[in-house]
Design goal:
The chain is α/β, with parallel strands linked by helices. It has a single domain, classed as TIM Barrel (Alpha-Beta Barrel). Helices cover 34% and strands 17% of the residues. The chain is globular, with a radius of gyration of 19 Å. The chain starts with 11 loop residues before the first strand and ends in a 6-residue tail after the last helix. The model has no long low-confidence stretch (mean pLDDT 94).
Length: 315
């Protein structure tokens, strides 16, 4: 429950829930009282006490390391331990690119939509079938050797990144957010080893357009990495590094494609000037910015109002 002092400063809360907490067995029904239900109850109670400044819920489903073991072992797959190189967070991941895994993920989405698509307090659900550690499916910062040994290919990965969007067509009223990053898959080299390489930004932009084609105005374009240093990425000097250039291209594309748009800031140690970063997101047309720390109350109230005032694309 957000403290009463936060009324008007924030517009929502995030329910982060591992897939394993929602389906203990293949095809099982969602348990009542799960983290999503709890977040809705929190929002209802907060809104009853603060009707002029209500909050809403974003649902972040953690597949990848948060998937149930039965999904991680589909078709006899041996779960692969991965460790994110930036955060050090680790866990095991299953065959996210396979048809069996995709069918299981689609079943989850169907059950979630039945339960929550008509719930007005649930405003957004993440697209996360192809994620590993974080709900950022285009991020490939872990060693993929164990995946290659069990049938992974870059082509299958790319097919997964598109197919996961189709699994969210079942939702008819709720925004579906897909987090984009420059795509750096692990590819086989001539010696039989694997190495990470940065692919053209065209692939990511293509998937942005497909998301809007498949899900229409409900497709929310997302990035979970914004920080103060990114504000200067429009300069020629900043874009000399290929990945920095791709981030700049990606942010321009998100702004040009219009709402709905959502961001998450980098962590407190790397975000830099948080208020300036949020204002930059507002200028790109963002409808929400997920933050990891509070800042000046007056500025937060102004920024929250600006985010709520940006067009959502759905009327």
């Amino acid at each position: 429950m957000p403290p009463a002092a936060d009324a008007g400063l924030i517009g929502g809360i995030v329910a982060t829930v591992p897939w394993a907490d929602l389906q203990s067995a293949p095809g099982s029904q969602l348990p009542t009282g799960n983290a999503i239900d709890q977040a809705i109850s929190v929002a209802k109670a907060f809104n009853a006490a603060h009707p002029a400044t209500p909050i809403y819920v974003k649902v972040r489903i953690i597949a990848g390391i948060g998937a149930p073991m039965w999904a991680k072992t589909l078709d006899g797959f041996r779960p692969v331990k991965v460790t994110n190189t930036a955060s050090g967070q680790s866990g095991t991941v299953g065959p996210f690119w396979t048809a069996a895994y995709a069918a299981a993920y689609a079943d989850l989405q169907a059950k979630l939509a039945v339960r929550y698509d008509a719930e007005p307090l649930v405003r957004d659900v993440t697209v996360s079938q192809c994620m590993t550690v974080f709900a950022e499916p285009f991020q490939r910062d872990e060693d993929f050797t164990g995946f290659y040994a069990q049938g992974y290919t870059v082509a299958a990965d790319q097919a997964c990144l598109r197919q996961q969007i189709d699994a969210h067509r079942i939702w008819k009223h709720t925004h579906q957010s897909l987090s984009f990053n420059p795509y750096r898959p692990w590819q086989l080299d001539q010696s039989g080893g694997i190495s990470q390489s940065l692919m053209s930004e065209d692939f990511v932009l293509q998937e942005m357009r497909y998301c809007r084609t498949a899900l229409g105005a409900l497709c929310t374009l997302e990035n979970n990495s914004i920080r103060f240093s990114f504000i200067g990425m429009q300069s020629a000097a900043a874009q000399a590094a290929p990945q920095a250039r791709q981030y700049a291209v990606m942010y321009r594309a998100i702004a040009s494609m219009g709402p709905a748009i959502t961001f998450q800031t980098a962590g407190p140690r790397t975000v830099g000037n948080l208020p300036a970063t949020v204002r930059w997101a507002v200028s790109l047309g963002a409808n929400s910015v997920e933050i990891g720390q509070m800042y000046d109350a007056a500025q937060m109230q102004t920024d929250n109002a600006a985010l709520l005032a940006n067009p959502t694309g759905t009327g």
